[in-house]
Amino acid sequence: xxxxxxxxxxxxxxxxxxxxxxxxxxxxxxxxxxxxxxxxxxxxxxxxxxxxxxxxxxxxxxxxxxxxxxxxxxxxxxxxxxxxxxxxxxxxxxxxxxxxxxxxxxxxxxxxxxxxxxxxxxxxxxxxxxxxxxxxxxxxxxxxxxxxxxxxxxxxxxxxxxxxxxxxxxxxxxxxxxxxxxxxxxxxxxxxxxxxxxxxxxxxxxxxxxxxxxxxxxxxxxxxxxxxxxxxxxxxxxxxxxxxxxxxxxxxxxxxxxxxxxxxxxxxx
Length: 269
What we know:
The protein is of the alpha/beta class and 269 residues long. It has helices at 18-25, 33-45, 49-69, 88-95, 108-118, 134-143, 170-180, 198-211, 221-225, and strands spanning 74-78, 100-105, 124-128, 154-158, 186-192, 232-233, 239-240, 261-267. 38% of the residues lie in helices and 14% in strands. Strands 1, 2, 3, 4, 5, 6, 7 and 8 form an eight-stranded mixed β-sheet that branches.
């Protein structure tokens, strides 16, 4: 199997990656055949899955715009995935060129591609890190010099916590990030849910575990809301992806009551 020029050495091209599958669902080009096959299999089980990806991307755009409007000028995007149109730095720096954005992901393909895109942008960078090791992640983030932990930070956990198993205590990971940032900071979370379509959630979860060896954890609304326990939820709270502060009809990628994702934004007071 020929390795694409953009793929770093050592990456396993026979194992699907959540970041590259998401890229494939969005119509991106930085994925392997195994990722496209996994995405196609998931789409056969739930044909409207690409709409979930689009809906999630639209939430990210709106959340970043809201945080900039709320005074945030630095962002830590954890589990950022493969860079595609409408990246955080593009959204934030369009509103204020002084915004600083730091991307973190466990997938070396995502990090390598991000660094290529960010070449020449001295207010954005990417590094490899694991959300499940928050102390190490935060230390690496500080070492870049882009994030000032004494100033408000926009922490983005978009479509990443559902990759963390219950035994890995995702709630404690979110709490650790809360404790590390100053008052005036925000967290934006989106998460796949079993609340709206439990049968489809079960099919996708079982398929990911059996076929792709990827653990995807569809959680209930109370479980997802609990991630904000240390934060003050902003209106409208934890809602379906298209219902979080939609800006126009173009944000309605999914039918109301049927979104497979929930989202919310919290503030540290």
